[in-house]
Structures are given as C-alpha cells and as structure tokens.
Amino acid sequence: MVSVGRRGSRSIAMAVPRSVVLGVAMVAVLAGCGATGARAQLRMGFYAESCPGAERLVGDYVRQHVRRVPTVAAALLRLHFHDCFVRGCDASVLLNSTVAGGVAEKDAPPNLTLRGFDFVDRVKGVLEEACPGVVSCADVLALAARDAVAAIGGPSWRVPTGRRDGTVSSAEEALDEIPKPTMSFPELADLFASKGLGVRDLVWLSGAHTIGIAHCSSIADRLYGYAGAGNDTADPSLDAGYAANLRRRKCRAPDDDGVVEMDPGSHLTFDLGYYRAVLKHRGLFGSDAALLTDAAARADVEAVVGGAEEVFFQVFARSMARLATVQVKTGAEGEVRRNCAVVNGDYK
Length: 348
Known about the structure:
- The chain has helices spanning 18-33, 37-41, 54-66, 71-84, 117-130, 137-151, 171-177, 185-193, 199-205, 220-223, 240-249, 273-279, 286-289, 295-305, 309-323, and strands spanning 213-215, 259-261.
- By secondary structure, the protein is an all-alpha fold.
- The protein has a two-stranded antiparallel ribbon with strand order 1-2.
- The radius of gyration is 20 Å and the shape is globular.
C-alpha cells in the first residue's frame, strides 16, 4: 500500500470524486496482478542486513539539500522518469558515452536538458562510504526521486528495493522510447502500454508537470508557425492570450533558449495547478493538451481538479510506485555500479 503525505486531518474519502475512486481501485488491482518476475523480487527492506540505514542516508541527504534548493525535486523526478522509459528503471540514463559503448542516453536530444546527475553521484558517494558496492544506482535514483517530491510537500510512496544497474545505454533507444512533447493521446497511450502502464498512469504521471520548467525549444512549434502556417500562428489548442504572452515575455523567437514555468505561479509547489492550467488550455506541451482529447482522460482531470488535493497525491503516488517497477533488473541481472556514470568494468 502506498503511503501518501497529507495536509491537515481531513478524510480523503469525503472528497474523492467517484471516477477517481474507481481509477485508484483499478490501479491497485493492476499493481497486484502485475507483481511477477523481476518486479516481484523487489522488496521493502532489501538492504536491511547488507546496508542498514541505506534508505535513511538517502532520505536525510535529499531532504537537507532539496529544502535549500527545491528545484532539485523536479530534476530528480524527470531523471527517474526518463530512466524508467528506456530499458526499464536500471540507471542506464546515468551512464556516460564511451568509445566502446557509443553515445549514451544522457547525450540523446531528449535528455540534454536533464539535471541532477551530480546530485545522484553525491548521494551514491554517501552510500559507498557506508557500504561499498552494495546499493545500486537504480535504487538510489528511485529513492531520491520519491524523497525529493516529499521534501517539497508532495506525496510519498513505498519504494521496494533490489534493483540492479544496467550495463547498456543507447541514445538511439532514448529517442525511440522517451515520450515526446508533440505526441497525440493515442501515441502516448501506446507508449505507456508498452511499459505496462495504463491510461490513468499517463494522466496522473503527467501531473509531475506541476513542478519544474520547460525550455522554449520544446514548445516553439506551438508558438510559431504552427502546422506550417505563418510565423505568428500558434497552436489553436493553446489559449490564444497565453500564447501571445509567452511570445511577448518568455519565448520571444522560435530559437529562443529561455525557460518557462510548467505551472506558472506555483512551479515549486506540488499541487493541482497543472491540471487547472490544462483545463484552461494552458498546458505547455502538445502532450499536455492531448489529455483533453480523450474523453476518459479529460473526465479524470476534471474530477481530480474538483476534489481534494490529497486525492491527486494518492493517485500520483500509486502511479509512481508502478513506474518505479518498470522492466527492473534483479538477482543476477546487471550489476551494482561503484560509480553511477560508468560500468564496473571501466571503473578505476
């Protein structure tokens, strides 16, 4: 069962819209049915004997630093998401490119704006001092992402451990597997399904956009020359006033290298602001707007916005728990890297 951070003592059951209740129940059933193979080998307390206090060390470090620099939370959450969508949650996104291994995931275009690599390395360093060669980088990333979200007042969730680190990282695979901001709803749903994630996981994991920033380059096609039209033509699914404001104040040209808050006004706060923006047609990405093109997805967004914030926390936490088990490596698969950026055979 996923533990969820709450504000106040209100009962969640009093405010949960029926459609969201059904969604939570469905996710719980699917999660139970999907606990097979490598996923089933993950367990709570995996390091209880081999590295007692490992999760406490991760949590303490993350809380200490994220409370001072809250933007780290969005960086770690995005890093974890991008990792899990390519070869599963195996920390392959952390590997450096090499002559022998070729161009790695972190150097693929979708990952060039990823941050948090140094932070993960520092957390791993703390664990290496306490228990050399025991805790995998994949577990460090899964735990750190969870603890960072909780540190800024968002939900928490159970993270069973025992992941092993992958030894292969491919930029080409990252291009194919990471969701693109231009994708339609059917394309997104198919991609999520290929990872064992459902449509509701797509809706709730999109809620991660309540924190963090986007680069102008990722939305230029929605602001300038949409669908090959004139340079001042914006995507009609984007609120016209909002698009004009973005062109005037944030992304002043198609090649502008600026940034935009994903959830303007509360991009450091884990709340329902993102979904409210989507309903106002102010989601930055085409993939955000796509949530309104599917009747069931739109109904879920409308329902969660009309309910208590704790409901969003609960469904987001459950979907994050599912994401963290995608195509994991366990047992004799992979390795436990000593340095998250290089495979052990190249470690010196």
